[in-house]
Amino acid sequence: MRSGRAAAVAVVCAAAAAALAVLVSTGASAGLDGPLSRAAVSAALEHPGPTRVAQVVEALTQPVWLYLLGALATAWCARAGRGRDALTALVTGAVAALLSPALKLLLARERPALEAGLTSAGGGSFPSGHAMSSATVVLIAVVLLLRPGALRRLVGVLGALLLLVVAVDRVWLGAHWPTDVLGGWLLAAALVGAAAWWRARSQRHGDGTGAPLRAVGGADADR
Questions:
Q1: Cβ distance 193 to 13 under 8 Å?
Q2: Nearest CA to 31 among 159, 143, 178?
Q3: pLDDT for res 81
Q4: Which residues fall within 8 angstroms of residue 88, CB to CB, at 6 or more apart?
Q5: Residue 218, pLDDT above cutoff 80
Q6: What is the average pLDDT value for the chain, to the nearest integer?
Q7: Is residue 208 predicted with pLDDT exceeding 70?
Q8: How many angstroms separate the CA atoms of 25 and 97, rounded?
């Protein structure tokens, strides 16, 4: 991703996440969140089969497992001699892992339906840790680690499906409001966009080590 495009993505997504956090903290998002969450939790209580599947998804997509998967991919990248890419991915994942719980503590938003007994989640609600960690790991893989080609396209498709499944799972179980999921996605995009900007800038200035950076479209990045 070229540095200008990456910077624009980072700024726009960060601004959108900040605006969403204001709406959430003032209660302005309740008109959207309330009806959707109530409908989802009611459906979950009426359909125990899909709810059990959602609980399995919740367990398998815990942020710790997703970040571990990202760490393994980063190690593979470093072993392949791409030190800059690996370092950028590692720092981005670490910032995401710290930022989510910090914002939960700061905003202290209550979760929608813990009393329904469908989830074991606790703590603050905004942003969704599951949504943020899954989006961060998928975007790191597609934007920072994988070269253009069939593998990156496959990971992109599977990653998009994962994000959709996690989003539905979080709202279905009453663990998060829809805006919590959106906030997690926006924050992940902002972080990875900033990381892609830094990597492109350092590549252009000849910093660090590693293989030449490739743009998303397959062309060489700015030199």
A1: yes
A2: 178
A3: 87
A4: 144, 195, 198, 199
A5: no
A6: 89
A7: no
A8: 22
Q: What's the rounded mean pLDDT across residues 122-129?
A: 93
Q: What percent of the chain has pLDDT over 90?
A: 77
Amino acid letter, 59: A
The CA distance from 145 to 215, in Å, is 11
Six token digits for residue 51: 């709810």
Torsion of CA 125, 131, 132, 134, to 10 degrees: 150
Cα 104 from chain centre: 15
Span 160-196, pLDDT tens digits: 999 999 999 999 999 999 999 999 999 999 999 999 9
**DSSP per position, the chain:** --HHHHHHHHHHHHHHHHHHHHHHHHTTTHHHHHHHHHHHHHHHHH-HHHHHHHHHHHHHT-HHHHHHHHHHHHHHHHHTT-HHHHHHHHHHHHHHHHHHHHHHHHH-PPPS-GGG------S--SS-HHHHHHHHHHHIIIIIIPPSSHHHHHHHHHHHHHHHHHHHHHHHTTSS-HHHHHHHHHHHHHHHHHHHHHHHHHHHTT-S-SSPPB-TTSSBPP-
